[in-house]
Structure formats: structure tokens, C-alpha cells
Amino acid sequence: MNAPTNFDLDALKADLSAKSRELFIGGKYVPAASGETIDVVNPATGQSFATAAAGGEEDINRAVAAARKAFDGGWPQTSPAQRARLMLKLADLIEANADELAFTETLDNGMPLMMAKMGAVGAAAEQLRYNAGWATKITGETITPSFPGEWQCMTLRQPVGVVGAIVPWNFPFAMAVSKLAAALAAGCTIVLKPAEQTPLTAALLGRLIGEAGFPEGVVNIVTGYGHSAGAALAAHPDVNKVSFTGSTAIGKEIIRASTGNLKRVTLELGGKSPTVIFGDADLSKAIPSAAMGIFGNSGQVCAAGSRLFAHESVFEQVVEGISAMAQNLKVGSGLSPETQMGPLVSDKQQERVLSYIESGGSEGASVAVGGGTVTPEGCEGGYFVQPTVLTGTVSGMKVVEEEIFGPVLCAMRFGDDDIDMIAKSANASDYGLSSSIWTENITSALKLARRLEAGNVRINGVGGGVDPALPLGGFKQSGWGRECGRAGVEAYTELKTVSIGLG
Ligand code: NAI
Ligand code: MG
């Protein structure tokens, strides 16, 4: 996907600025009932460049009614093969519109264009293709019970119903589509609520859903703020399930909002994921991977490796290596081809990250590299923070305990190879999303992998990312349930036991 692209960026910009992106409800684009809009800001410049409809409770009510109508009107009875075909068609349409979607994602979120192409468009298409395969493979079991008489018993997996999908701004398009993909495979209908910071690619998706031929109301998209549209969706009495990705604080709000009708809830929340580097690790791989594990997407990644634990025999070398990478990282607008790290998504996130760095300093941490803002050429007004490494960090400090969601690494050392001690340090967190282990000793790696309280453990892993086949989710306050893989599709089903008495 190396761009030389002859895509007409000026035409896209003109189009985005000329037309406020509307809500997609019941197969039609409509303005928000209130007529209100969201100003969409390019985080590389701080300039607003587009508007999107700010949907509220009334719009959510309309969208849920449309989703209910589609659910009751036969979407779950559509043959699995037909659902799969529609999903494959949508994947093709997304790829056919890859440039438009990727440039829009970069303008909206700030991520490097290459990442938008692979992390947004490519990942979304692959989620659809993978989950299209599941549509025809969702099965129950047959079970022989021990109660008296002769019985044929079986389980059915049926779609949970109308799904509310609430997604964040860090990988807006990929996350929206991955939730849609699993829900559609299971036979659910959906109301999608994108993040207010990044509404555009989801808003563009409506057109492609229409073109793919999905029946009206199967997918509805309501852009809007969390406190209005998001809260209304989470509390809606006719929504059967909410799938949420975002902060742990709002995840808890979602649970509270779900109690009215006890809707099902899955949560993919924050993290404070450890990267553990043993003394025998292959540092030529471990160092760049640890660096990109925290600086990739400017650290705005739920699974970012934000706590480093390196053996004291390699600690200095690891910190120097990561710091050198930080210094050489090309920070800039996501639109310029050499950019490796873009801005943070908003002024609010920039302030938040800077205040964490400041709090680290006041609690006794040292800045090994970075620590402030930076203004790349042509990006005056952008929300950039330098890739930063903090040393002298210890548990109890805010920077070690809390999710920063920026390019800030807390580097810590360990003295001996006692796996239980290392696991204890790595597990000393309210979160438990991801983790990464570097060692040439397979026994150490596997022992530690078994002890880590994390939904995902990666051993000696270079590159990669979210794969639609691999379950993703967290222990502890990193969430409830799993996305991706079989578990991810089954999370959109109810399990029903049917027992047939044979006399
Ligand atoms: P957030 O949790 O407020 O936003 C995520 C989504 O939830 C957005 O679509 C938002 O509109 C919606 N939302 C907000 N309030 C809601 C409510 N009361 N009811 C229903 N939906 C609601 O996250 P925010 O404030 O944008 O970011 C703050 C921090 O959250 C970040 O610094 C980071 O630590 C964490 N975060 C984690 C993410 C992850 O991937 N796990 C993604 C985004 C943020
Ligand atoms: Mg934006």
C-alpha cells in the first residue's frame, strides 16, 4: 500500500467542508432533529474543516425504532449465506473507496495516512471478510441430559437483537466496522454512535452500506456527543445489547445505564499494559517493538505498552535505544508521507497528556527524552506531544497507575529473574488488557504468560496488531467480554436450550 496516490485531496476537503455529514437512519441520510452540528477539527492544525450532525435522544429513538423494525422485519431470518454476501460486498466497497476513507480518517483523527490505510480501511475490510465467514458457521450443540425419559436436547444461538455500538476516536473506522461485522454476522441490527471527535468516516460508511444492498434499518449511524446521543443509546429500553469501547469511567456509566432493561454489555476499556524485557532478549527486535508499542498512533491505543519492565543488565541500553528512536521519530501531519507519529486527537487530549508528564515530574520521575509539545512545520495550532520516556517511575505515581493515552512510556527495572516477582509488578494495575514479553528462554516466557493478568500476551512479537481471528479484551477493569474470533461473534447471540421429549 505504498502511496504514490493520485487522489484529489483538495476535492475531498472541499466536499467535506461543503456538506455537513448527516445521520443515517432507516437507510436515509437525515439531519439531526435539533439541527445542531459538531465542528470537526483537524488535530494537525487545530482548524475546523467540516461539520457533522449532532444527534441526540430523539435521533437515537428514531434509529432504534428503525433497527427494531429491520430486526422484526426479517434480517435475522435472512439466510446466513446472504448476510455473508452483503458483508463481503461491503468489504469490497470499503476497499474501492479506500483513499477517500483513509484521507478522511487522517484529517479527522490525525493518524499517519499509511496507518489510516492499513489500520482503518484495510483492517475494516478484513473484519468484514472474517466475520462474513462466521455468518454461515454459528452453531449450537446437541446434548444428552440425565433426567428421566428419552430426550433430544439442543442449543440454538440466536441474535441478541438490536445492538448499540459506541466507539471511540483512536481507531474510529476500524472499531466501528469491527463491531458492525460481528453483529451483522450474528443477525443483529445496529445503531452505531461514533465519537464526537471523529465522526466523518463512520458518516461516510452509510452510503456504502446502502450501496452494498443491506435492507433499510439494519445499520443506522447517529453521530453525536457522548452525554446526549451516547447516553440515550446506552439507556434505551429497546436496545438489547451495548458494545462499548472507550474509557473505564464511561464503561462504568454504560453499566449503570444498562440496568433499566438489563441489556447485555460488552466493554473494551483502557489499559496500562506491561512490556517485559529479560536480560537475554533479542534487543534488536525488543527495542523498536517496545518503542512503537507506545509511540504508535501517538500512544492512543488501548493496548499500548505504557509500562516497561527491563532487566537491570539491559535497562540502560533499552532506555537509550527507545529514547534514540523517540528522537528520530518523524512527528508531523499524518498527510505528509514521511510522518511516523501524528498529533493527539484534540486539544483536550494534548492537555491531558502534558498534565500527566508534569505530574510525573512533580512525583519524582525524570524525563529521559521528550516531555513537551512540538510544532512540526506547517502544523502551527496542532496538538502534538513529543514521544516521551520517563525513568525513576515507581508504583503509586499517577503516571504509572493511570492510563495516559499518549506517547509516554514509564520505564522501570527489575533485578532478578524470579517470574512470580516480575508477574507481581506487571500485574500491579487495575487494568489487564495486553502485555508483551521478550526473552529467548521459552520457559520463562510461558511461565510469565500464564501468570500475567491480561487478555492478550505477546511473546517476541514484532509488528502485527489486531487480527479479526484473535480474541481481544481485558481482565479486571479493562473490560467485559471479548471482541474478535468466535467469542466476538457469540457475544452478539443469546444461547437457547431446546429440549424435545421423545416419550
Ligand atoms: P470516552 O470514554 O468519553 O469516549 C468514548 C465513546 O463514548 C465516545 O463515542 C463518546 O461519545 C462516548 N460517551 C461518552 N460519554 C458517554 C456516556 N455518558 N454514555 C454513552 N456514551 C458516552 O473517552 P474520551 O473522554 O474521549 O477519552 C478519555 C480517555 O479515555 C482517554 O484519555 C483514554 O485514556 C480513554 N480511552 C480509551 C480508549 C480505548 O480504546 N480503550 C478509547 C478512547 C479513550
Ligand atoms: Mg477530529
Structure description:
The chain is an alpha/beta fold and 503 residues long. It has 2 domains: 9-269 and 480-497, Aldehyde Dehydrogenase, Chain A, domain 1; 274-467, Aldehyde Dehydrogenase, Chain A, domain 2, CATH 3.40.309.10. The chain is 40% helix and 19% strand. The protein contains 16 helices and 22 strands. The strands form 6 sheets. A 7-stranded mixed beta sheet has the order 14-15-16-13-12-18-19, sandwiched between helices. A 6-stranded mixed beta sheet has the order 9-8-7-10-11-21, with helices on both faces. It is globular. The mean pLDDT is 97. The chain binds 1,4-dihydronicotinamide adenine dinucleotide and magnesium ion. Magnesium ion binds at residues 40-41, 43, 108, 197-198.
Q: Which compounds are bound in this model?
A: 1,4-dihydronicotinamide adenine dinucleotide, magnesium ion
Could you tell me the strand content as a percent range?
A: 15-25%
Q: What is the annotated CATH architecture of the largest domain?
A: 3-Layer(aba) Sandwich
Mean of residue pLDDT?
A: 97
CATH superfamily of the largest domain: Aldehyde Dehydrogenase, Chain A, domain 1
The radius of gyration over CA amounts to: 23 Å
In whole angstroms, the N-to-C terminal distance is 63 Å
Physical arrangement of strands within the biggest beta sheet:
14-15-16-13-12-18-19
Give the total of domains: 2
Percent range of helical residues = 25-40%
Quickly name the level 1 CATH class of the largest domain. Alpha Beta
Structural class: alpha/beta
Low-confidence stretches: none
Question: What is the count of β-strands?
Answer: 22
Kindly report the CATH topology of the largest domain. Answer: Aldehyde Dehydrogenase, Chain A, domain 1
Sheet bearing the most strands, described? 7 strands, mixed
Number of helices: 16
Dominant shape: globular
Pfam families: Aldedh
Active site: 268
GO molecular function: oxidoreductase activity, acting on the aldehyde or oxo group of donors, NAD or NADP as acceptor
Keywords: Oxidoreductase
